[in-house]
Amino acid sequence: xxxxxxxxxxxxxxxxxxxxxxxxxxxxxxxxxxxxxxxxxxxxxxxxxxxxxxxxxxxxxxxxxxxxxxxxxxxxxxxxxxxxxxxxxxxxxxxxxxxxxxxxxxxxxxxxxxxx
Length: 116
Hints:
- The chain has helices at residues 2-18, 21-47, 49-87, 90-115.
- It starts with a helix and ends with a helix.
- It is mostly helical.
- The chain is flat and about 65 Å long.
- Helices cover 94% and strands 0% of the residues.
- The protein contains 4 helices and no strands.
């Protein structure tokens, strides 16, 4: 019983900390300031089509760079997995492959059962 009361007190204390009115006011004020700054910058950008065009181009370059970064990380992960498999002793590799096949077989069977 004492454990439940301690747990309830911890939850209440945490809730009070998270929901403190001072933090709400400060956070809301920060958001209002951000919104005002955004509106001001959007207005200035819309007044100058050249800046707007250049800004959009820069954003597209940034998005493309981030996508290339994600692609590179995925490729590194793939190569690392291949390297790990190549370096693995044959008996471990066989066991790992069997485990993966069993896992995917189980998942596929569950999907098929749900869809049929």
